[in-house]
Amino acid sequence: MRDVTILRSICFVHELGIPPKFIFDGNDHQATHFVFYDGDEPIGALRIRWFAGFAKYERTCFREKARNPFIIKRCIQDTFEHVARKGYTQVTTQSEPRLTKLWTKLFGFQILDEEPAYILGHDEPYLTVVGTLTPHAEPINLTSPSQVLLRVEGEWDRPSDFE
Predict the structure, then answer these.
(1) Which residue of 57, 83, 92, 111 shows the fewest CB atoms closer than 10 Å?
(2) Are 75 and 63 within 8 A, CB to CB?
(3) What DSSP designation does 10 have?
(4) Is the pLDDT of residue 79 over 80?
(5) What secondary structure letter does DSSP report for 135?
(6) 3-class SS letters over 42-107
(7) For residue range 103-119, what is the model confidence (pLDDT) as tens digits?
(8) Rounded to the nearest 5°, which phi and psi values hold at 60?
(9) Residue 32: its pLDDT value, please?
């Protein structure tokens, strides 16, 4: 969480002037967080919240030196494996118009035909985009071995210290 805080502070609070109360909220305590690194240095982050039948990507940010389509694509694609392993095939995010092409061109997401979301303090509306993932061959579910269900999030194939 330290690196998530650092990255969001740089990208959202410092660069864009977004108030911290919008960038850090109660959903941070019940979400899955990804931090992307270049060696030991954190370069990007996002959080995922889980809903009935879909995963929602939020607070996606990359440091300026990592804002390269190749880097972003590689990092975000790594998260799709995690989402699919949990049994989800739908991913959504709400995107500023200037970033919508990132989701549609790099990942094949589609813009939903619904009203854009207006957020207090933001001049531009946010557009909802949705992507479909290939189902995982071995999703975690009720028939997964009990020890797998006890393992650390995302490390389902690695025995824990308690096994």
Answers:
(1) 111
(2) no
(3) I
(4) yes
(5) P
(6) EEEEEEEEEECCEEEEEEEEECHHHCCHHHHHHHHHHHHHHHHHCCCCEEEEEECHHHHHHHHHHH
(7) 999 999 999 877 788 87
(8) -70, 125
(9) 96
Residues paired with 127 in a beta bridge: 95
CA distance 57 to 31: 10
Q: Structure pTM?
A: 0.89
List 129's β-bridge partners, or say none.
93, 111
Q: Which residues, 6+ apart, have CB-to-CB distance to 133 below 8 Å?
A: 80, 83, 84, 88, 89, 90, 91
Return the half-sphere exposure (C-beta side, CA atoms, 13 A cut-off) of residue 115: 3
The DSSP letter of residue 158 is S
Neighbouring CB atoms inside 10 A of 43's CB total 22
CB contact at 8 A, 7 and 35: yes
For the chain, which domains are there? 2-150 (3.40.630.30)
pLDDT, tens digit (0-9, with 9 covering 90-100), for 27-47: 999 999 999 999 999 999 999
Q: Which residues contact 37 (CB under 8 A, 6 or more apart)?
A: 43
